[in-house]
Amino acid sequence: MTENWFGRTVEVTLGPPGHGGFCVARHDGRVMFVRHGLPGEVVRAKVTEDRGGSFCRADAVEIVSASADRIPQVCPISGPGGSGCCDYSHATVAAGRAMKASVVAEQLRRIAGVERDITVEALPGNDDGTGWRTRVRLGVDGAGRAGFHRFRSSTLVTDLSCPQVIPGAFTGLDAERWRPGSELAVAVDGDDVRHVVEIAPAAVSRTGRRSPGRRGAAARRAAASRPRPEKIVDGTGRPHEYVSERQWELDATGFWQAHRHAAQRYSDVVAEWSDVEPGAVAWDLYGGVGVFAASVAGGVGSSGRVVSVEFSRRAASDGAAALEDSAQVEFVPGRVERVIATLPSPSVVVLDPPRSGADKEVVSAIEATDARRVVHIGCDPASFARDTALYRAAGFEFAEVRAFDAFPLSHHVECIGLFVR
To answer: What beta strand segments (E) does 264-334 contain?
Structure first.
């Protein structure tokens, strides 16, 4: 039986970065996933989680031999035991991008079986990695204080000093007391207007309240995903956002790219790579408020058709309002996997699925159409690589990939892939 290492501190040399914001190390025949270190560093790592088996999780609590890429921690609330948001804030911006590129390349190689040189590109306005985030979801603890979740924990850090957010986003929020167990959605829109919405606590089942295991966690996630009462605290709760001189009005609790410049950059790539022709049919799956539908609408022209599928009826309605002058765009509310078989066959498919990615059912449905090009946006390297493997198995060539540093100071990275046949 494997000895439980929880709480144990050992000296290790850190290897390459892994998917999830850690570096890989080995000690006594076991793998350690060590956060807050950099490749090549010698650190003293304290084990924070050990469920047995071949690996455990740890934090670098002392740097014995530092990397040249190490800098003073930019985020005052991250680090061992702190908030889980800024897990690369101890690295130079260039080193952070290099680690992300390494992770994307490794996931593509291991899961999809493809070799690609990856460069993680900067987005405008984040030279030092700070002041880019316009949307944040905060938790509220039992004392009514807003804060960030600690890594893999339900407890909160109630210091709102995260450097990712644009200046002024959190002003005054730490002086208020909120409903315990609620959440705060904070959005600063394209007009620099702040919107704050308090979301009521989730109605968690008895299983979710009492079970510490997977069933309880699943019950808590299900409760959190259900619609909950909302209270507008600041602003109108309806941010205005802009892409290519078009305005969207949407809910502050709805989806919009967190990085101020991400939506425009991704839209530009989609418009270029979709390469639609006048009169063509295009799909925009997981379409939100239709930013990518707008990107391809001009290409298909008035004789073409763009079908945007989005589960949220409110988002689909907001998209239809923003694109009311584009008669060729149709919004279809519903789950992608349920409605995809009813859609007209496309020549181009654009999709921006959730972090879990598209699944085999959706890719198989795309395979059965006349689609010659697929533009896939993914915010998780592992699910992006898995979907890449599915497209290749369906007969698509992995033609292009671009990766963007849309989440500076963190390990997260956005990938856009072009698949053709």
So the answer is: 281-285, 305-310, 329-333
Residue 105 falls within a domain, yes or no?
Answer: no
Residue 212 forms part of a structural domain: yes
Helix, coil or strand: residue 159:
coil
Which pLDDT does position 136 carry in this prediction? Answer: 97
Buried b (16+ CB within 10 A) or exposed e, 213-236: eeebeebbeebeeeeeebeebbbe
Q: Contact, 333 vs 310, CB < 8 A?
A: yes
Mean pLDDT, range 29-43, rounded to an integer: 97
For residue 404, give the amino acid letter. F
Could you read off the pLDDT of 50-70 as tens digits, one per residue?
A: 998 899 999 999 999 999 999
Give the strand pairing for 17-18 and 414-420: unpaired
How many domains are there within the chain?
Answer: 3
pLDDT band at 225 (very low <50, low <70, confident <90, very high): confident
Average pLDDT value for the chain: 95
Q: Which residues are annotated as a binding site?
A: 257, 286, 310, 352
Residue 1 has pLDDT above 60, yes or no: no
220 pLDDT more than 80: no
In a domain, 156, yes or no: yes
- Helix, strand or coil, per DSSP, at residue 325: coil
Same-domain check for residues 215 and 255? no
Q: Is residue 124 part of a domain?
A: no
What six digits make up the tokens of 286? 């997981």
Name every residue whose Cβ is closer than 8 Å to that of residue 187 and which is 6 or more positions away in sequence. 134, 135, 194, 195, 235, 239, 252, 256
> Residue ranges for the binding site for S-adenosyl-L-methionine?
257, 286, 310, 352
CB 392 within 8 A of CB 360: no
Contact 409, 86 (CB under 8 A): yes
Place 126 in a pLDDT band, splitting at 50, 70 and 90: low
Give the 3-state secondary structure of residue 329: strand
Query: Counting every residue, how long is the chain?
Result: 421
Residue with tokens 């040249």: 68
Residue 6, domain extent: 1-70
What tokens appear for 301 in the block?
């022209």
Both tokens assigned to 348? 């181009």
DSSP H or E segment with residue 231: strand 230-234
Using CA atoms of 357, 361, 363, 368 in order, give the dihedral in degrees to the nearest 10.
-160
Count helices and strands (H / E) in the chain. 9, 22
- Compute the distance between CA of residue 247 and CA of residue 256 in angstroms, rounded to an integer: 13
**Which DSSP category does 209 fall into?**
H
Please state, in angstroms and rounded to a whole number, the distance separating the CA atoms of residues 266 and 257.
Answer: 10
Residues forming the active site? 379
